Amino acid sequence: MNKPEKLSDAQRSTALAELTAHGWQVGEDRDAISKTFTFGDFNEAFGWMTRVALIAEHMNHHPEWSNVYKTVKVTLSTHDVGGLSALDIAMATKMDRLAG
Amino acid sequence: MNKPEKLSDAQRSTALAELTAHGWQVGEDRDAISKTFTFGDFNEAFGWMTRVALIAEHMNHHPEWSNVYKTVKVTLSTHDVGGLSALDIAMATKMDRLAG
């Protein structure tokens, strides 16, 4: 996988328009995006996390996330570039798709 | 499984003496215990979470937890009793054992 690069202004505004329409929020105090996913129960929430974890390992790009029973709050940012990269946009899109 | 009950003062002090010796901290603003587990990498951290998740489903007692790469911060408390119960002590002990 190529080394991630920070998004350009144009890439950023296209990607964020799409993601914010799907419930993602841009960080106020850091260049990151967050979303809270709510499932039917713990089984569904952790099942989703497990599918995402396998993708994260494959991408070598890992979310920051917290789980309380049926909710999972996710924050995505790319440590190596100090902000949002294409990896975060790809991960957010995959998370949404898996959450159905 | 029996309905959980809040720990008595005696049960509490015995259990907490043991757990705080293993790195658990008692909540300052709520009746809960917390610990941050650090693993070798994401694979180990999420592998541990998966084993804990299966136990949590079996016990019908779920942690609040957050994961950032190789660290997992856990908080345990029993919603139904508004504080610590024997379920939290049992879960904390299992988590420590699985973390090795």
TrEMBL record, chains A, B:
Protein name: Putative pterin-4-alpha-carbinolamine dehydratase
InterPro entries from the UniProt entry: PCD_sf, Pterin_deHydtase
Keywords: Lyase
Pfam families: Pterin_4a
CDD domains (UniProt xref): PCD_DCoH_subfamily_b
Catalytic activity: (4aS,6R)-4a-hydroxy-L-erythro-5,6,7,8-tetrahydrobiopterin = (6R)-L-erythro-6,7-dihydrobiopterin + H2O
Xref: SUPFAM superfamilies: PCD-like
EC number: 4.2.1.96
Listed GO MF terms: 4-alpha-hydroxytetrahydrobiopterin dehydratase activity
GO terms classed as biological process: tetrahydrobiopterin biosynthetic process
Family statement: Belongs to the pterin-4-alpha-carbinolamine dehydratase family.
